[in-house]
Amino acid sequence: MNAPVSPADTLRAALSGLLDGLPPRQAAQAVDRLIANYRGRTPTDAPVLRDRSDVVAYAAYRMPATFEALCAALDAFADAVPGWTPASHVDVGGGTGAATWAVSATWEGPRPVTVLDWAEPALALGREIAAANPALKAAEWHRSRIGSALTIESTDLVTVSYVLGELTEAGRAAVVDAAAAAAQAVVIVEPGTPDGYARVIEARDRLIGAGFRIAAPCPHSAACPIVPGEDWCHFSARVSRSSLHRQVKGGSLAYEDEKFSYVAAARFPVAPAASRVVRKPQIRKGQVLLDLCGPDESLHRDTVTKRHGPLYRAARDAHWGDAWPPPDTDQDQTRA
Ligand SMILES: C[S@@+](CC[C@H](N)C(=O)[O-])C[C@H]1O[C@@H](n2cnc3c(N)ncnc32)[C@H](O)[C@@H]1O
């Protein structure tokens, strides 16, 4: 039997192993309970992930999606900081450790890794799954509550993934300020909803106020051109559905798309995208319509036609969330 090679494959195998021996009905019930507990109960004053079946349900049901969203955000960040590799990583509100897997998939490890969370069962399961990933074998898993007393040890990278939505306004400010004080780079990911985007923008403003520069997704560190309430910046990551997903959600689709919002910022110089594709490109006969966020703090649509030669071919391959133009195309041809 061939050993799984990529961290994504290793993670999938580790997660499916968790469900071995758990009767499918019990797994589905644990997911239903988890969803019900989250619904309408945030911010929470005690951990939602209280026991092993809660965290198994979370890991099997949500972790593949948070992992893929993080990988997409970290890829965009890595493109904007060529040559930089985090020498250490702290994942705050890390739960079962999706971000640690995504960081190790983006930049080969090992490196010192610390996961902080207030839910002991999540940390315990994260530690168990991480045993399958050589880059995470030495990771430390510590109980820590996000609040005004939160301190994070000095580190290269802090990730805060799908956590802000569980916090009060004061908690959100505390975690972003502690991350900014501790790290050279901060990556924050939230669900790709209007509320998730609003929390990302709030964090983005705090990071800029603390002296950070925005590396991704924005082409600049000035104000976001989106008018609050009219739209929200978000992206999409494809996630293979596990058998548990299919069982709980029904249907036979082999994948689903996880919508997420994010910001990646650094204290050191960054090279953000010239522009960012902020909607799914529309391919028409002989032309591609690209909705872009540009360096001049504006949103605009570019029409790339066959006349643009290599750029047109690049536009046909462009995806929602990509930098535009691709870094290796002729910059003179970027505007229609
Ligand atoms: C939706 S989960 C996200 C887990 C992980 N970061 C991911 O992306 O899969 C939210 C996590 O934040 C943790 N959390 C929520 N409020 C917290 C607090 N006040 N202090 C510490 N951890 C907290 C929860 O225990 C949970 O593990």
Model description:
With 336 residues, the chain is α/β, with parallel strands linked by helices. 36% of the residues lie in helices and 22% in strands. It has ten helices and 13 strands. The strands form two sheets. Strands 1, 2, 3, 4, 5, 6, 7 and 8 form an eight-stranded mixed sheet that branches. Strands 9, 10, 11, 12 and 13 form a five-stranded antiparallel sheet that branches. Helix 7 (169-182) links the parallel strand 4 (155-161) and strand 5. Helix 2 (24-38) crosses helix 3 (52-61), helix 4 (63-80) runs parallel beside helix 5 (98-106) and helix 7 packs across helix 8 (194-209). S-adenosylmethionine is lined by residues 47, 49, 63, 66, 93-95, 98-99, 117-119, 122, 145-146, 161-163, 166-167, 171. Residues 47, 49, 63, 66, 93-95, 98-99, 117-119, 122, 145-146, 161-163, 166-167, 171 line the site of S-adenosylmethionine.
If you compute it from the alpha carbons, what radius of gyration comes out, rounded to the nearest whole angstrom? 20 Å
Structural class: alpha/beta
Count of beta strands: 13
- Regions with pLDDT < 50 over 5+ consecutive residues? 332-336
- Described by the principal axes of the CA atoms, the overall outline is globular
Average pLDDT across residues? 91
DSSP summary: helix tally: 10
The portion of residues forming beta strands comes to: 15-25%
What is the helix content? 25-40%
Order of helices and strands: HHHHEHEHEEHEHEEHEEEEEHE
Described by strand count, sense and barrel closure, the largest sheet is: 8 strands, mixed
